[in-house]
Amino acid sequence: MIKAVIIDDEVNARNLLEKTLDKYFPNKINVVEKCSSVDAGVVAIRNHEPELVFLDIQMPEKNGLELFNYFDKINFEVIFTTAFDRFAIKAIKRSALDYLLKPINHLDLAEALKKFERKNEGNSAQKKLSLLLENLNVNDQNVSKIAFPTLEGFELMHTNQILYCRAESNYCNIKKIDGSTKMAAKTLKYVEGILPQHAFKRIHKSYVINLNYVVRYHKSNKEIELTNGEKLPVSFRKEEEFINAILQNH
């Protein structure tokens, strides 16, 4: 069942919404707590970690929109419930799952819950994929094959096939020794973390290299040359770490 929290300053509105959910969606929604204020709602969300929050906007003391100021990361979906449609634009800007006007019609509520389920199915698939990748990429330096998340799913790759990895905004471009490239749907920092540390080293904010394919280091212009002839920059603060890693690796 979907764990939900209701936040509304009107006791009748809280009770009516809960009764509507119990009547029309008895095996779908579990209301774990009803709250009369933003402050109480923040505590309830932190305690129960709900998947869905029904949030009134116009409340005394603190506006419902202020709820988001208390969370660095929003791990729940929000359905706004209010009698004032002038708040709709603000709600949309907050990327709300849906916006329902009081008194809430059970048919409109059903549509909102369908949106939640469709969105949650996608999130669930992503969580399962992330868990799979974590299980595949065990912290074992002897593992030579790594699962890299891609836009299509994931791809298994032998680490000795990787020449270097380059940051591409929130993605990472993996250059292979055969000249081909593959875009990983993760940051360079993430990719660096799953690669074997004895063979791969960060030499620059944008590059992680395979130490086994370094041919030479040009100290004058702080560049390394790889077996394919490419030259990559070495940052000043990474120079000593890189040289030590090369000496230890050979």
Runs in which pLDDT lies below 50 for 5 or more consecutive residues are 138-143
Number of strands: 15
| Average pLDDT reading | 84
Order of helices and strands: EHEHEEHEHEEEEEHEEEEEH
Number of helices: 6
Shape category = elongated
Please state the CA-atom Rg, rounded to the nearest Å: 26 Å
Portion in helices: 25-40%
Category by helix and strand content: alpha/beta
The portion of residues forming beta strands comes to 25-35%
Q: In what order do the strands lie side by side in the largest sheet? A: 2-1-3-4-5
Report the span from N to C terminus: 56 Å
Largest sheet: 5 strands, parallel
What's the quick description here?
With 250 residues, the chain is α/β, with parallel strands linked by helices. It has six helices and 15 strands.
Attribute tags:
5-stranded antiparallel β-sheet; alpha/beta; 250 residues; 5-stranded parallel β-sheet; 6 helices
Q: What's the structural blueprint in terms of helices and strands?
A:
Elements: E1 2-7, H1 11-24, E2 29-35, H2 38-48, E3 52-56, E4 77-82, H3 88-93, E5 98-101, H4 106-136, E6 145-149, E7 154-158, E8 162-168, E9 171-176, E10 181-184, H5 188-194, E11 200-204, E12 207-210, E13 214-218, E14 223-226, E15 231-233, H6 239-249
Parallel strand pairs: 1-2, 1-3, 3-4, 4-5
Antiparallel strand pairs: 6-7, 8-9, 8-12, 9-10, 11-12, 13-14, 14-15
